[in-house]
Amino acid sequence: MASLYPSWSNAVYRLAIAGLALGAVGAVVGPMVYVRTPYNTSQLVAWDQPVEFDHRHHVRDDGIECLYCHSSAETAPTAGVPTTAVCMGCHLQVWSDSPLLEPVRRSYFSGQPIRWRRVHNLPDFVYFHHGVHVQRGVPCERCHGDVGRMARVVQVAPLTMGWCLDCHRSPETRIAGGTLPGSMWGATVDMVAERPEGQAAVSSLTTCSACHR
Fold it and tell me: What are the tens digits of pLDDT across the range 56-76?
């Protein structure tokens, strides 16, 4: 009696089963891989901003401290973006007629803030307090890179959950020994790894509720 299906149908059937299995795995693993790629995290993307602000000139050439513009970095949840009043504190006298500063002058006199595009943007479901990390001795460069050498600020770290947890679990291995170059706080590994008696250890902040509240 002749077979109902040709002999090659077995190979097709096996390939179909394998394709379905790979598709099911890809549907689960694919999104997990994608969310960790620079395409999703925007890592190293130099966004266009409404004003061409060069950190190299302000930090390296003029010697302006980070806290002059980001005055809430040590105490508040966010480092904050300086108001145009801070900018015009200098630029009422320096480059006061420059076409590049027209958006700044317009914002200053109209009271309308400049619509900067956020570079380091954590999801809304993540709780992060900037001041807590600064007061614990974590230098700016650990998360933001050497901004003083950037023409345009880019996100140098992936800012994924795994990246944060790696530092919380073993900060002494994630931050280079000695004072980090360019750190205005002079933060060292000892400041991060050691803690005053009675304060919570960094490694204890690895539970879900520490960041997802």
Answer: 999 999 999 888 999 899 899
Rg over alpha carbons for the chain, rounded to the nearest Å, is: 25
Helix pair 102-110, 84-91: axis angle to 10 deg: 120
pLDDT of residue 192: 42
Distance of CA 192 to CAs 9, 101, 133, Å? 64, 40, 9
- Over 70: is that where the pLDDT of 55 sits? yes
Per-residue DSSP letter, 169: H
Give pLDDT, residue 11: 86
DSSP state string for 3-63? -SS-TTHHHHHHHHHHHHHHHHHHHHHHHHHHTTSHHHH-TT-----SS---HIIIIIIS-
Provide the 3-class DSSP secondary structure of residue 24.
helix
State the pTM of this model. Answer: 0.70
Q: How far apart are CA 186 and CA 188, in angstroms?
A: 6
CB-based contact 156:142 (threshold 8 Å) = no
| Residue 196 in tokens | 């005053």
